[in-house]
Design goal:
Elements (H helix, E strand, L loop, with lengths): L7 E10 L2 E5 L5 E5 L20 E10 L4 E5 L4 H9 L5 H23 L1
Parallel strand pairs: 3-5
Antiparallel strand pairs: 1-2, 1-4, 2-3, 4-5
Length: 115
């Protein structure tokens, strides 16, 4: 057994689907970080968490040696925590956008009043 549950491994991102990030670990093993194992927060787009060709540190959840497949997670890794800090979650995007929308609307109302 080359990999086992709990191992911290580094894989290279080879692709994306709406449901997760695909990785290659060596010439034989490939893996998937399912969307539910990317962040404890809502994940709108898995591409926000990795780039094609990037090396990602992840934890092995399951290893199928026969099929050479790994199921992985970044939730409790330094890599995943760092990415979560870079991405706005919850109401943060609304909090940033609301003052801009209010300013635009006030400007629009002022212009109508002047006419």
């Amino acid at each position: 057994m080359k990999y086992k549950k709990g191992d911290l491994v580094v894989g290279k991102v080879t692709g994306f689907e709406d449901y997760g990030i695909f990785l290659a670990f060596d010439e034989q093993y490939t893996g998937l970080i399912h969307i539910s194992e990317i962040s404890p927060y809502f994940v709108k787009d898995v591409k926000n968490y990795a780039q094609l060709g990037e090396e990602v540190s992840c934890r092995v959840l399951e290893c199928d040696d026969e099929r050479k497949k790994l199921k992985c997670s970044i939730i409790d890794t330094d890599y995943g925590k760092k990415k979560d800090l870079e991405i706005d979650h919850g109401f943060t995007p609304l909090k940033k956008q609301l003052p801009i929308w209010m300013e635009e609307k006030l400007r629009e109302m002022a212009e109508k009043k002047q006419k």
